[in-house]
Amino acid sequence: MQNGEQAATKLGHGANSGLPWMTILDSTGDEIVNSNSPQGNIGCPITENECGYFMTMIEKSKQRLTSQQTIDLATALDAYAAPKRRGND
Length: 89
Description:
Largest sheet: 2 strands, antiparallel
């Protein structure tokens, strides 16, 4: 990404935050929420806490998702993450 380092710094992604790191912006480019949970960057959400925070990100930023679509997303995320959990919760 061109100017990625500058964009990440502007959005608050520190050098030791880990990757992947994500932020959801509004239509004007202002941040709505990022992947820095109270416990740190959720990266690719696997643990129940990480998945829960990811869904918090979705709830904070969704505009057109229905409740059912949000439930379906949470279900799909859990189906992906659950087999990868090895006592990480």
